[in-house]
Design goal:
Number of strands: 4
Order of helices and strands: HHHHHEEEEHHHHH
Mean pLDDT: 90
Strand content: under 5%
Low-confidence stretches: none
Radius of gyration: 20 Å
Shape: elongated
Helix content: 40-55%
Length: about 190
Amino acid sequence: GSVLAVTSNPDRTSPVKRGVFVLNNILGTPAPPPPPNVPALEASEKDFTNKEPTLRVALEMHRSQPLCASCHARMDPIGLGLENFNALGMWRDKERNQLIEPAGKLITGESFNDVRELKHILMKEHRTDFYRCLTQKLLTYALGRGLECYDVETVDQIVDRLERENGRFSVLLMGIIQSAPFQARRNQA
């Protein structure tokens, strides 16, 4: 619920923020920063006079601009897959009195119909991305510094062990504790 609240706007959910959160913090594949002078999503909604569009429709209008489409193709399907959850994490079937359509297709080609299928795809097809992201974040915390190019081998070794051991957290923890960067770190007085 806290992640859903943090990735929402004060007055509505934000599929873009939710997609960016998953890309950055779960898959470790951040989207590039937005270009300057990007119009707000609400600017896309002004073309609708007869009814208020769903976020999906507004995002489709926003993505019709080529400059916006390249990044939103990565973020939006993930965020829209989470749209059944409101800003507090409660389940809902409608938004703006219209049924929510959580189906989508990831930029890597996998299609899903709802959040359960999205979760399954992320767990099965992108498991290694998750292992790598979690390893990098935990190793950064353990070392008390950002990762450098010479830490790549350590991360790769830990991720390989996680793959072999079905992602057991103890494997990750011991991999970090036994790693050369952790063993050789210096305590600052």
